[in-house]
Amino acid sequence: MDIGERTATLVRRLRFSAVERPVPAFEQLPAPPSERGHWLVAGTIAALGVATLVAVLTGLVGRSPGVPPAAPPAVLVTAATPAPAAGSTGASRTQAPGAIVARAPATQPSQGPARLASPLQSAVSTRWMEGFYPIYSVAQRTFGVNWLLIASIHEQETAFSTAPSTYHGLNFADCCGGPMQFNVTNGGRGTGSGSTWDLVSGSYRYGARPAAYDHPTARHPSIYDDFDAIMAAAHLLSADGATPALEQGAWNAAYDYYGHDAAGVAYADQVLARAIGWSQHGFCVNCGLEPAMVAAVHAAYGAPVLATLTPVRTPPRATAARARKH
Question: Mean pLDDT, to the nearest integer, of 5-31?
Answer without folding.
Answer: 56
